[in-house]
Every structure is written in C-alpha cells, then in structure tokens.
Amino acid sequence: xxxxxxxxxxxxxxxxxxxxxxxxxxxxxxxxxxxxxxxxxxxxxxxxxxxxxxxxxxxxxxxxxxxxxxxxxxxxxxxxxxxxxxxxxxxxxxxxxxxxxxxxxxxxxxxxxxxxxxxxxxxxxxxxxxxxxxxxxxxxxxxxxxxxxxxxxxxxxxxxxxxxxxxxxxxxxxxxxxxxxxxxxxxxxxxxxxxxxxxxxxxxxxxxxxxxxxxxxxxxxxxxxxxxxxxxxxxxxxxxxxxxxxxxxxxxxxxxxxxxxxxxxxxxxx
Length: 270
What we know:
With 270 residues, the chain is α/β, with parallel strands linked by helices. 51% of the residues lie in helices and 13% in strands. It has a six-stranded mixed β-sheet with strand order 3-2-1-4-5-6, with helices on both faces.
C-alpha cells in the first residue's frame, strides 16, 4: 500500500545518509555501533531502512559522525515514519492531547494493547505484512503508550463494545494478557474504561468507532479510521455532534467500576 511505502522510502533515505557519513568517517558498522552503544546488527538494520532508529541513536550518531545537525534535522520525520501514513496526523494529535475519548467496536485501542495482542493483529492482516513492517508497527505502538507517564497527565476515556473483550484474537493466552492490561491501565487515576454491553437495545455508537482529541485551549478534533483510510473531523458542528454522541455512549455503557468488575469476571472464566 502507498502509505507503507512513504515511510519505508524515507527510512531507506535516512539509512543511506547514515551510511555515507559513517564511510566518510572511516568506520565500519561494528565500530560505529560500539561508539553509539548499539550492536552491529542494529546499525545494519538502520542503514538498510529496516529498523527505525531511536532519537538518542540519531543524536549520538550526529555527534560521533560530525554530521553538523544533518541527522538531527531528520529526527522528527523519522519519528513520523514509524506510523503508516493514514495514522500520522492522529499520532501527532494523540501526543499533544490533554484529553482523549475513544469508542471502539472491533479491536482494543492501540494505546491499551499488549505487545502480544499487537503482534497477533498485525500477523493476521491481509494482504500479509512483512516482518520488518510488523516490528516497526509494534515498536511504534509501544512508544505511543509512553503517554500514560506524561505529566501533566492527560485524561483518557475508553469505551469499547463487549465483543471487543470476548474475541480471542491470538488465542486464550493473548486474550488473558490483554484483559489484564486493560484492568491495570483502567485503574489509573486519569483513565476511565467502560464497556458497552451487547444486550443494550439502544446504542448511540451504531455508526462505528471514533476518537475525540482535545488540545490545550479546548479545541476538539475528531478522527475516524477504517480499511487503512482515515478522516480528521475539524468542522465545528461535526465535532460537536461527535462529542454529543460520545456523551450518550458513555451514559449507555457500564460505569467504569462496573466495567472493570466485568473484565475481572472474564478473567476468572478463562
């Protein structure tokens, strides 16, 4: 897909630049890795565009190779390349948000996913994703979860359909680990997790899942995603409608305490 190629092309470009600077400095991959505190295999993967370098690796490489800020200048774009093109704007909004509200109908939200659950989802994608892409996507999703350690702490509200919790994607052990993760994160002071029961006769979320990002100053932006395509909702009336709908969804769902009790019940049944 095009969105995968955009990021991959930039990473290959960064890798070639790193290789040219390394060769100019007269260093082998092993020698550069030793100076940076990384293995030769990792340097090789970065140069070939197969692995996304961490910000600290870029900073150290720029200094060691006397790159004059050339590598540092690409750091932000490298970070964006971690994500498929359709998600890059959402990733930026997510990182800036002071409040995030999300309603999910098919799978657990990326911010709540365990590494095992991530791998299970990515491995069952059709057409199949190659191993390097899967590793990049896993690393990117895990890095997004650092937002839970941010201070001031953003406020999070996650509402998910009961069916999301019941699906044994990846098998029972993966499901168990995922339920435990939801229970753990749901106990944070700035996080509320709610479950929409399948037996509800009225559900304001029948149009599908969506996310609301609230930025500093109160501006809200909506986001929807399906089949590798995404839409940012910025029209004030449309955003207002999404916010009103989300409020109704929360009212129709189990309360946070009831929801966590339900997750515990599911764990006891596995």
